[in-house]
Amino acid sequence: MRRLLYGISLMLAGLAQAADPASAREAAAAPAATSSPAASTPAKPLDLRLGDIRRYITPEDYRALMGAPAMEANTVIVQADAPLLPAKSSQPIPGGIMAPFWALAHPTQAWRLLVPDLKRPPDGPTEDKVPPPVFRWGP
Q: Could you report the per-residue pLDDT of 39-91, keeping only the tens digit for each?
């Protein structure tokens, strides 16, 4: 069966090529036929020079960079103005009887029901249930 399908696919490919032989000849001869002067000249190399840096930064920043030590001149400081929005995984999830309903409403976050929520305050008192042993020097 596999040989039959392979033979049919080769026959169809040959028929498709035979049906349009002129376009195949034109495509093969197209690069040789375009001998215009613009195509024969090499492309201009890519210019990656920055130029005058004073066009891109303020004069105060330029003077500060020129007077800064070499270590400070290579330092980049990024300041973010916008506060970060809370992520969905940091928002609290309901517990108890509401947990399965919340999981049905948020199926992509349902995995959070199976892991402990470290940001949730503990229920009840936080003191130890078992008192620490009393230290004694002897019996």
A: 577 788 888 888 888 788 888 888 887 776 766 666 777 777 777 777 777 77
Cα 139 to Cα 4: distance, rounded to the nearest angstrom: 94
Overall average pLDDT of the 93-103 stretch: 90
- Sign, CA dihedral 118-119-125-127, equals positive
Q: Mind giving me the DSSP string for 70-101?
A: HHHHT-------SPPPPPGGGS----GGGHHH
d(CA 9, CA 15): 10
Six token digits for residue 120: 């949730």
**138 by DSSP, 3-state: which?**
coil
Residue 112 scores a pLDDT above 80: yes
**CA-CA-CA-CA torsion sign (102, 108, 113, 119):** negative
With H, G, I as helix, E, B as strand and everything else as coil, classify residue 134. coil
